[in-house]
Amino acid sequence: MNVAIREYQERDLESCKHLWRELTQRHRDIYLDQSIGGNDPGIYFEHYLQKTNLAGPWIAEESSTIVGMAGLLINGEEAEIEPIVIRSGFRSRGIGTLLIEKLKTEARERGIAYLSIRPVARNVEAIQCFHRAGFSLLGHIDMFLGLTEESNEGWKEGITIHGHAFRY
Predict the structure, then answer these.
(1) How do 157-161 and 114-117 pair as beta strands?
(2) pLDDT in tens, 55-109
(3) Among 7, 113, 120, 118, which Cα is nearest to 70's?
(4) Which residues are CB-neighbours of 58 under 8 A, at least 6 positions away?
(5) Cα–Cα dist 104/113, whole Å
(6) Is residue 162 one of the residues assigned to a domain?
(7) Which residue range(s) make up the domain with 104?
(8) Is residue 152 assigned to a domain?
(9) Integer Cα distance of 113 and 100 in angstroms
(10) The three-state (H, E, C) secondary structure of 14-50, written as one string
(11) What is the pTM of this model?
Protein backbone atom coordinates (compact mmCIF):
# COMPACT_ATOMS: atom_id res chain seq x y z
CA MET A 1 0.00 0.00 0.00
CA ASN A 2 1.48 3.31 -1.08
CA VAL A 3 -0.97 5.90 0.26
CA ALA A 4 -0.06 9.55 0.66
CA ILE A 5 -1.96 11.88 2.98
CA ARG A 6 -2.10 15.52 1.84
CA GLU A 7 -4.21 18.61 2.29
CA TYR A 8 -7.33 19.11 0.19
CA GLN A 9 -6.96 21.15 -3.01
CA GLU A 10 -9.69 22.70 -5.18
CA ARG A 11 -9.03 20.12 -7.89
CA ASP A 12 -10.24 17.44 -5.43
CA LEU A 13 -13.81 18.78 -5.30
CA GLU A 14 -15.55 16.24 -7.56
CA SER A 15 -13.68 13.27 -6.09
CA CYS A 16 -14.59 14.39 -2.58
CA LYS A 17 -18.23 14.91 -3.54
CA HIS A 18 -18.16 11.33 -4.82
CA LEU A 19 -16.75 10.16 -1.47
CA TRP A 20 -19.51 12.08 0.34
CA ARG A 21 -22.08 10.27 -1.82
CA GLU A 22 -20.45 6.95 -0.91
CA LEU A 23 -20.61 7.82 2.79
CA THR A 24 -24.28 8.70 2.44
CA GLN A 25 -24.99 5.48 0.55
CA ARG A 26 -23.28 3.51 3.32
CA HIS A 27 -25.66 5.13 5.83
CA ARG A 28 -28.62 4.45 3.53
CA ASP A 29 -27.65 0.78 3.34
CA ILE A 30 -27.01 0.43 7.08
CA TYR A 31 -30.38 1.95 7.96
CA LEU A 32 -32.33 0.56 4.98
CA ASP A 33 -33.45 4.09 4.10
CA GLN A 34 -32.64 5.37 0.63
CA SER A 35 -33.99 8.83 1.46
CA ILE A 36 -31.06 9.71 3.75
CA GLY A 37 -29.11 12.64 2.31
CA GLY A 38 -31.70 13.65 -0.27
CA ASN A 39 -31.39 13.52 -4.05
CA ASP A 40 -27.81 14.77 -4.32
CA PRO A 41 -25.87 14.14 -1.11
CA GLY A 42 -22.62 15.17 -2.82
CA ILE A 43 -23.70 18.80 -2.62
CA TYR A 44 -23.33 18.63 1.16
CA PHE A 45 -19.56 18.41 0.73
CA GLU A 46 -19.63 21.95 -0.64
CA HIS A 47 -21.58 23.08 2.45
CA TYR A 48 -19.06 21.26 4.63
CA LEU A 49 -16.19 23.24 3.05
CA GLN A 50 -17.91 26.46 4.16
CA LYS A 51 -17.75 25.60 7.87
CA THR A 52 -15.78 28.27 9.69
CA ASN A 53 -14.34 25.80 12.23
CA LEU A 54 -13.04 23.36 9.58
CA ALA A 55 -9.40 22.33 9.58
CA GLY A 56 -8.41 20.41 6.47
CA PRO A 57 -9.77 18.32 4.99
CA TRP A 58 -6.98 15.88 4.28
CA ILE A 59 -6.97 13.49 1.37
CA ALA A 60 -5.70 9.91 1.13
CA GLU A 61 -4.34 9.30 -2.35
CA GLU A 62 -3.05 6.12 -3.93
CA SER A 63 -1.62 6.10 -7.46
CA SER A 64 -3.26 9.48 -8.24
CA THR A 65 -6.65 8.18 -7.07
CA ILE A 66 -8.37 9.79 -4.10
CA VAL A 67 -9.30 6.88 -1.85
CA GLY A 68 -10.30 8.70 1.34
CA MET A 69 -10.73 11.98 3.15
CA ALA A 70 -11.15 13.29 6.66
CA GLY A 71 -11.43 16.65 8.37
CA LEU A 72 -11.44 18.27 11.78
CA LEU A 73 -14.14 20.53 13.18
CA ILE A 74 -12.49 22.57 15.93
CA ASN A 75 -14.34 24.16 18.84
CA GLY A 76 -11.97 25.61 21.42
CA GLU A 77 -9.90 22.85 22.95
CA GLU A 78 -12.09 20.14 21.46
CA ALA A 79 -12.16 18.82 17.91
CA GLU A 80 -14.27 16.27 16.08
CA ILE A 81 -13.18 14.11 13.18
CA GLU A 82 -15.91 14.79 10.62
CA PRO A 83 -16.17 13.12 8.23
CA ILE A 84 -13.90 10.21 7.65
CA VAL A 85 -14.72 8.24 4.56
CA ILE A 86 -12.83 5.61 2.60
CA ARG A 87 -13.80 4.71 -0.97
CA SER A 88 -15.50 1.31 -1.22
CA GLY A 89 -13.03 -1.22 -2.53
CA PHE A 90 -10.26 0.42 -0.47
CA ARG A 91 -11.73 -0.19 2.99
CA SER A 92 -10.08 -2.50 5.53
CA ARG A 93 -6.61 -1.70 4.15
CA GLY A 94 -5.45 0.69 6.87
CA ILE A 95 -6.26 3.91 5.01
CA GLY A 96 -8.71 5.06 7.66
CA THR A 97 -6.08 4.43 10.32
CA LEU A 98 -3.57 6.57 8.38
CA LEU A 99 -6.08 9.42 8.19
CA ILE A 100 -6.95 9.11 11.89
CA GLU A 101 -3.25 9.25 12.83
CA LYS A 102 -2.80 12.37 10.68
CA LEU A 103 -5.76 14.06 12.35
CA LYS A 104 -4.58 13.05 15.83
CA THR A 105 -1.23 14.68 15.06
CA GLU A 106 -2.90 17.82 13.68
CA ALA A 107 -5.13 18.07 16.75
CA ARG A 108 -2.18 17.70 19.14
CA GLU A 109 -0.20 20.36 17.25
CA ARG A 110 -3.18 22.73 17.56
CA GLY A 111 -3.38 22.24 21.34
CA ILE A 112 -6.60 20.22 21.26
CA ALA A 113 -7.32 18.45 24.57
CA TYR A 114 -10.12 16.15 23.37
CA LEU A 115 -10.65 14.58 19.96
CA SER A 116 -14.01 12.97 19.25
CA ILE A 117 -15.66 11.03 16.47
CA ARG A 118 -19.36 10.18 16.06
CA PRO A 119 -19.99 7.09 13.92
CA VAL A 120 -23.54 5.94 13.34
CA ALA A 121 -24.41 3.19 15.81
CA ARG A 122 -24.83 0.49 13.15
CA ASN A 123 -21.45 1.04 11.51
CA VAL A 124 -19.76 -1.79 13.39
CA GLU A 125 -16.64 -1.79 11.21
CA ALA A 126 -16.07 1.93 11.77
CA ILE A 127 -16.63 1.63 15.52
CA GLN A 128 -14.10 -1.22 15.68
CA CYS A 129 -11.57 0.84 13.69
CA PHE A 130 -12.03 3.89 15.90
CA HIS A 131 -11.70 1.83 19.06
CA ARG A 132 -8.44 0.30 17.77
CA ALA A 133 -7.25 3.87 17.10
CA GLY A 134 -7.72 4.72 20.78
CA PHE A 135 -11.25 6.12 20.93
CA SER A 136 -12.41 4.36 24.10
CA LEU A 137 -13.94 7.22 26.10
CA LEU A 138 -17.70 7.78 25.77
CA GLY A 139 -18.90 11.37 25.93
CA HIS A 140 -22.39 11.91 24.60
CA ILE A 141 -24.91 9.34 23.44
CA ASP A 142 -27.70 10.31 21.02
CA MET A 143 -30.96 8.69 22.10
CA PHE A 144 -34.09 8.59 19.97
CA LEU A 145 -37.77 7.94 20.56
CA GLY A 146 -39.74 6.80 17.54
CA LEU A 147 -43.07 8.64 17.52
CA THR A 148 -44.63 6.74 14.63
CA GLU A 149 -45.00 3.06 13.87
CA GLU A 150 -42.73 3.51 10.84
CA SER A 151 -40.00 5.24 12.85
CA ASN A 152 -39.91 2.27 15.26
CA GLU A 153 -39.34 -0.32 12.51
CA GLY A 154 -35.99 -1.75 11.53
CA TRP A 155 -34.05 -1.09 14.72
CA LYS A 156 -31.75 -3.92 15.87
CA GLU A 157 -31.50 -5.35 19.39
CA GLY A 158 -28.22 -5.86 21.16
CA ILE A 159 -26.64 -2.92 22.98
CA THR A 160 -26.66 -2.56 26.78
CA ILE A 161 -25.42 0.57 28.53
CA HIS A 162 -25.53 0.96 32.31
CA GLY A 163 -27.76 -2.11 32.50
CA HIS A 164 -30.34 -0.80 30.03
CA ALA A 165 -31.12 -2.44 26.69
CA PHE A 166 -31.10 -0.26 23.57
CA ARG A 167 -31.90 -0.81 19.93
CA TYR A 168 -29.68 0.66 17.29
Answers:
(1) unpaired
(2) 999 999 999 999 999 999 999 999 999 999 999 999 999 999 999 999 999 999 9
(3) 7
(4) 5, 6, 7, 8, 69, 70, 71, 99, 102, 103, 106
(5) 11
(6) no
(7) 3-140
(8) no
(9) 16
(10) HHHHHHHHHHHHHHHHHHCCCCCCCCCCCHHHHHHHC
(11) 0.89
